[in-house]
Description:
Layout lengths: L1 H20 L8 H25 L4 H23 L3 H4 L2 H11 L4 H8 L1 H28 L3 H15 L1 H18 L7 H38 L13 H9 L2 H31 L3 H58 L1 H10 L4 H32 L4 H34 L6 H38 L1
Helix pairs in contact: 1-7, 1-8, 1-9, 1-10, 1-13, 2-6, 2-7, 2-16, 3-7, 3-10, 5-6, 7-16, 8-13, 8-15, 9-10, 9-13, 11-16, 12-13, 12-15, 12-16, 12-17, 13-15, 13-17, 14-15
Amino acid sequence: xxxxxxxxYTILRDTKDVLVVTAPGSGAEIIPFLKTWVNxxxxxxxxxxxxxxxxxxxxxxxxxxxxxxxxxxxxxFAFLIYPLRDVLHPTAWAENALETMGPRFAGPIAxxxxxxxxxxxxxxxxxxxVVVSVLFWGFANQITTVDEAKQFYPLFGLGxxxxxxxxxxxxxxxxxxxxxxxxxxxxxxxxxxxxxxxxVIGGFLITSVFYYLNRxxxxxxxxxxxxxxxxxxxxxxxxxSFKFLAASPYIRDLAMLVVAxxxxxxxxxxxxxxKLKAQFPNPNDYSAFMGDFSTATGAVTFxxxxxxxxxxxxxxxxxxxxxxxxxxxxxxxxxxxLVLFSDTxxxxxxxxxxTPLFAAVLVGAAQNIFxxxxxxxxxDPCKEMAYIPLDDETKTKGxxxxxxxxxxxxxxxxxxxxQFMIIGFGSLAASTxxxxxxxxxxxxxxLLAAKDLDWRxxxxxxxxxxxxxx
Length: 470
């Protein structure tokens, strides 16, 4: 299941970036506006709907209700929506609005102009939040103990992140096919049909395996677990759910981890993608580079997954939780330093055969690769283990609120910061020094939250072990 989920996610992630960044009248500057004004409201709407459905559906029904709309959308985008893009996109209106309002509002105007691409972008983002975090990890947490999680969660990721290598190759192959097509052939349309066809097949494989597990493996696992005395509770409303979660320091620490990661990675990633578009203005070249990027991410993550089992065993949860913010801080400092001092470093880089722009692209790629690898191998397993000692209600609703709202909230927080910078300073490049300082503050807060959650998690785990003995 996890292999197929991440295979799909990598294809969707690489495709969504190429669609919106290289779209007419668009660029990397569109991403902060998109994450704040489109992605966040849709994430909040999903969480409200999910909370209501969780009160009336069982876990298996909830899984199907969430994943099937994604499969239908991505299939319909390639075969129906994209071919009709010229009819659906208000290009003339957007060009007139840009002349009237000026380039500072290019981001919001580009969202309206390319609204179908932006909808694809948001659905791809939600796939990561909903299917990866809520559906898969929620399912795993319901049938796994903390001791089992320490042993098997890194292995889940180890097998699944091989998917990044395969999906990265798939994106690269379709990029090469597009580049070799004769003039007049819609290469993107052909590529989307192939890539989304694989996504649809992967989606049905996920649901089939989930159905099989619920009929064969899950009943035996649940029978082997200690029986819990359930207290009858009236379903909480959405507002009551958020109030309940906000009152828990444990959940607040978890939320801080997720929000801080979203802000931190977004502050670096958008600046990097602006450099990436400057280096690869052609969509085929951009897509091919992203394919190589995903393959490299998969290879590095695979290695770190192996190491992570040793880290959990030797140093415990607390040390594992501190590694991801430390990696992001170190690599982020290197990237921003290269961007800020590119003029000073030009002679040295020329001696190595690099331009400052290409060097920034490579260092930014390395920063993203190692940050994402540490996230997949350490941050995600740590976060998911932290849910296990919680009671069922807190686990289900807390996970939905944190993973679906806090994840895009973190990205939107970083995006909102960048919007103020773009409008205030006129461009993303002019605001780079301030983004570097904000990154430092956010990561320090992240480290403090991880330290606080460490002892809370240990106490909750000890309480759960004590309850089992009784």
